[in-house]
């Protein structure tokens, strides 16, 4: 069986039926799977999906504090910019274009560390990266961990129900996981540690990274704008943490064919270019599916790509040594030829 066919932990309801058709689980099945996979009392191997949502729960007090105590016009503006633009763009820069697709390379580990921690730490790299490789291989097919055709909740709970790596990989397959993650700077468990924890990352290192990152950013925001700014921006991170889990459902047309001539050129799946995610996060999703390894996906004049602007800026500083840019290839194939 090909590696990407079995690298993810299959949900209890399965990916496909006996005829190879997508299984669309009920709400009850999805919620049961979510509860089972976040139950660390059943098995410690559930620690990573539990940890992923624990971060979201820890942001709830900031969210409540923002609305109860710190709701002013300037905190609303700050929260909007941070949650919608800065957090979204960082997700594209770090998790999407670098960690998954290796669209550019850092000059050294320092700049990689800076970029990794540009914002409040929310999404574990391991959950995002491996599953996203599967997503591109099986986009909108059974086995796609966030297949929009199975419904909103299927995508929303995907980081727990569909995206974690399998807990029983062979040593050879785990070595392939390590190769896919090696450039991210996240230190790998040994194979015996993977068998014990069921993950690439070690919980102690993940916990330490979380504490240091959140402490640094809370103190930074506090010194800049006091508790009002700190609480507001952490609240914004919480809103983003929930909102980002809805993206692939919308980014693949909610499971329907919503592609438009002259806008969406990749017709191998249901991905679409959306104006809002494109403008605020550089996520021109259909373009990205055409050229997944490109450090830029805003190819047309109106397609603002803030993630690309950051990558190009660091390249000019000498912090990024090389990058791939598919704009000219896109224009030659899809614009000049039309």
TrEMBL record:
Give the UniProt family note.
Answer: Belongs to the fatty acid desaturase type 2 family.
**Fatty acid desaturase domain: from which residue to which, for each copy?**
72-312
The cross-references to PANTHER family, in alphabetical order and at most eight, read:
ACYL-COA DESATURASE (PTHR11351), DESATURASE 1, ISOFORM A-RELATED (PTHR11351:SF31)
| Membrane topology label | Multi-pass membrane protein
The Gene Ontology biological process annotation of the record reads: fatty acid biosynthetic process
Q: Which UniProt keywords apply?
A: Fatty acid biosynthesis, Fatty acid metabolism, Iron, Lipid biosynthesis, Lipid metabolism, Membrane, Oxidoreductase, Transmembrane, Transmembrane helix
Q: What is this protein called?
A: Fatty acid desaturase
Pfam (any one): FA_desaturase
What EC number(s) are associated with this protein in UniProt? Answer: 1.14.19.-
Q: Which GO terms describe its molecular function?
A: oxidoreductase activity, acting on paired donors, with oxidation of a pair of donors resulting in the reduction of molecular oxygen to two molecules of water
Classification from the root reads:
Bacteria, Pseudomonadati, Bacteroidota, Sphingobacteriia, Sphingobacteriales
Offer a single GO CC term for the protein: membrane
């Amino acid at each position: 069986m090909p590696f990407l066919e079995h690298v993810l932990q299959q949900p209890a309801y399965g990916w496909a039926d006996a005829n190879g058709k997508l299984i669309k689980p009920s709400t009850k099945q999805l919620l049961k799977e979510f509860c089972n996979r976040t139950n660390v009392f059943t098995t410690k191997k559930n620690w990573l999906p539990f940890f992923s949502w624990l971060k979201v729960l820890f942001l709830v007090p900031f969210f409540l504090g923002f609305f109860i105590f710190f709701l002013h016009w300037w905190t609303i503006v700050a929260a909007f910019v941070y949650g919608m633009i800065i957090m979204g763009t960082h997700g594209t820069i770090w998790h999407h274009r670098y960690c998954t697709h290796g669209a550019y390379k850092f000059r050294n580990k320092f700049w990689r560390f800076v970029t990794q921690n540009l914002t409040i730490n929310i999404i574990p790299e391991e959950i995002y990266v491996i599953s996203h490789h599967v997503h591109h291989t099986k986009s909108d097919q059974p086995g796609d961990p966030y297949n929009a055709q199975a419904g909103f909740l299927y995508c929303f709970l995907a980081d727990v129900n569909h995206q974690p790596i399998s807990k029983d990989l062979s040593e050879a397959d785990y070595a392939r996981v390590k190769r896919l993650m090696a450039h991210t700077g996240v230190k790998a468990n040994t194979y015996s540690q993977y068998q014990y924890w069921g993950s690439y990352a070690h919980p102690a290192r993940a916990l330490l990274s979380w504490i240091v990152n959140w402490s640094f950013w809370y103190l930074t925001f506090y010194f800049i704008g006091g508790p009002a700014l700190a609480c507001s921006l952490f609240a914004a991170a919480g809103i983003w943490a929930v909102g980002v889990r809805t993206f692939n459902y919308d980014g693949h047309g909610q499971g329907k064919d919503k592609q438009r001539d002259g806008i969406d050129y990749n017709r191998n799946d249901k991905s679409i270019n959306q104006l809002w995610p494109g403008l605020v996060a550089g996520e021109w999703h259909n373009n990205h599916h055409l050229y997944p390894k490109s450090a830029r996906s805003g190819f047309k004049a109106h397609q603002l790509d803030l993630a690309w602007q950051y990558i190009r800026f660091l390249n000019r500083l000498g912090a990024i040594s090389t990058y791939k840019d598919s704009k000219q290839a896109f224009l030659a194939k899809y614009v000049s030829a039309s």
